[in-house]
Amino acid sequence: MQGIVRTNPASEELGHGVVLSTQSSALNCDARRLFPLGQNPALLQELQVIQRIVAHLGPTNSGKTHAALQHLRQAASGIYCGPLRLLAWQVHAQLCSSLPCNLVTGQERREELGARHTACTVEMASHRAVVDVAVVDEVQMLADHSRGWAWTRALLGVPARTLHVCGDPAVLPLLEKIAGETALAGEELEVRHYQRLSPLVPARRPLACLSQVRSGDCVVAFTRRDVHAVRQEVESHGRHRCCVVYGALPPNARQLQAALFNASRTGFNVLAASDAVGMGLNLSIRRIIFTSIRKWDGTADRQLTAAEIKQIAGRAGRYGSRFPSGTVTAMNAADLRVVADALQQPSEALTTAHLLPSLSQLELLHSQHPQDNLPALLRRFAAAAAGSLAQTHYCYAQYEDQYTLATMLRHLPLSLQEAWTFSISPTDPADAPLASALLRFATAYARQLRVPVAATLLPPLAQARSEVDLLQLETCHRILDLYLWLAHRFPDAFEGAEDVALKSGALAALIDTSIREMGVQRRCRASSEAAAAAADDASLEAEAEWEQQQVEEWMRRKRRYHKHRR
Predict the structure, then answer these.
(1) Are 175 and 146 in contact (CB under 8 A)?
(2) Are 164 and 288 in contact (CB under 8 A)?
C-alpha cells in the first residue's frame, strides 16, 4: 500500500467511501486511476492548507467532545460528524442557540439561511466544501467492522483546515500511523488528554435481585426481549416505573423515553437499556447494573471488552447532572469482578481501520468489467482489496449485508448507481418486513419511476397493548424511515416524503405512549413483602454509605494526581 490521500469524488457525499492507494495487479489498472485524488484542481490546492489534526482523547464524561465543539462554534465555518442521529440533533440544537446551523442525516435535511456550519451523521459528511474546523466524534469507531469505513472516510476525506477528533485513548496508535503516512505534507497531530470529570466506582457487592433497584438506576441487558423482561420485573415489584432504551427503538422515541427518565417526579425513575445507552443520550444515571457481561455480536456470543464495559459504565454519574458521582455493579460476584477490573485497565489499543469502496471507484472497476452486475463487482473489489491491504493497518469492512441486498435486487432493470444506492440503504437483510419493503420500493421504482406512500403497506396503527403490538409499531417505523432515506436520494420518485415524515414522528410518539401505558400499575403489597422491602432498604443504605466512601477516595486520588502534575 503506497499511501493514503484525501479524496473528493463527485458522488462520495451520499454513500460509502474509501481512500485507498494500491498497485494491486488484480484490479488491472494503475492505482492513481482507480483511487483519484479528485478531479477539481482548485479544491486540491485548497486541501494543501490543512495543517492540524487535534485528538481529544479521554473516557466518557471527560469533556473532550465539549472542548472540540467550542472550537467548532468559534470557527467561521465547520462540520460536526457524529455516530448517531441523536447526537447530530443534540449538536445541531446546541449550535443553533448561537449561530445558524444545517442538519443532515440519512432521513432529514434542515437548511438554515446563511448557515456555514453543519451537524451530520458521519456517513453524510460532505467531502466537497472546505471548512475551517471539522469535528469527528467517537473516532475509535473506525475500527468497527460494520460502520468503521465511514470514520476512516471522514478522517481522511473531510476537507477541513483543522480536524478535531474525539474518542477513546485506545485509538491513538492508529491515529499516529494514519497521520504519519498521509500524503499531505506538514500535517501536524496534536494530542490532548482528558480525565473523567466525576467519580465512577464499582460497588462493593453485586445486586441480589432487581427488587433492589433504586431511583436513578439503569439496568443493562443486551437484547430487546431482555430489556422488556427487565422492565416488567422492575415494575412488578410496585416501587418504580421503568423507561426503556434499545437500538430498535426509533431515535425520537428514545429521546422521549430519556426525557421521561431524566424528569423528576414522573414516577419513571428506573431505566432498562441495551448497550445503545453507551452513546447518544444525556442521561442522569446514578448506577449502572449489568445483568450480564456477555452479548451476541452478530457472529458469536462473547464477553464484553474492557472498552465496551467502560463505555456503558461511564454513563453513570454524568458531570452536572443530579447524580454527580456514579456507581457500577452486576448481578453476580464474578461479573462484578470483571467490571471492576475493566474500569482500572486501559482499553486495548486499536490496530486496524476499516475501508469500503465508493460508487465512483466501483464505476471505474465496472468500466473494465462491463459484464459484471453489482454483486459481482462487490466480490471482485473485495478480492482485489484483500491482497492490497495485507500487512497494513487497514482492512476491508463487512459488506455482506450490502452484497445480500444487491443480490436480492439483481433481477431489476436498475443502473449501477441506482442498484448501489438501494443496496447501501439502512436495511438489515435479516429483518424480513424491512427487506420486503426495500424490494417493493425498488421494484416500483424500476417499473414506474414512482414510489407512492401506499407502497409502505402500513396497517392501521393503534396504541400497543402487548410486546407483539409494540414490535409491529417499531417495524412500521423502520419502513417509514427507509422510505425517507430513499426519498432524499430519489426525490422525484419518492414523492410522499413530507407526509411520511409526519407519520414517522407521530408513530414515534405513539410508541413512546405505548411503552408508558404498558407498565404494570402500582398496587399495594402484602405485609410480608413490605417487611422484606424495609430490610432491603437498610441494606441499600449501608451500600450507599460504602459507595460514598469510595467516591471520596476517588476525589482524593484525583487531587493528588493534579498536585503531582503541577
Answers:
(1) no
(2) no
**pLDDT one-digit tens code per residue, 1-56:** 333 332 332 333 334 433 333 333 333 333 233 333 333 334 334 444 456 899 99
Closest CA relative to residue 486, chosen from 447, 506, 456: 456
Range list of β-strands (E), 287-392: 287-290, 294-296, 301-303, 326-330, 353-355
- C-alpha gyration radius of the chain: 25
Residue 384 has φ and ψ, to the nearest 5°, of -70, -40
Residues 6+ apart with CB under 8 A from 507: 250, 461, 473, 476, 477, 480
Give the number of other Cβ atoms within 10 Å of residue 233's Cβ. Answer: 17
pLDDT tens figures, 493-552: 999 999 999 999 999 999 999 999 986 544 433 333 444 344 445 555 655 665 666 666
d(C-alpha 283, C-alpha 280), whole Å: 9
CA distance 167 to 136: 9
* 9 CB-near residues (< 8 Å, 6+ apart): 17, 36, 38, 127, 358, 359, 360, 361
Distance CA 228, CA 471 (A): 11
Contact 167, 67 (CB under 8 A): no
Count helices and strands (H / E) in the chain. Answer: 18, 18
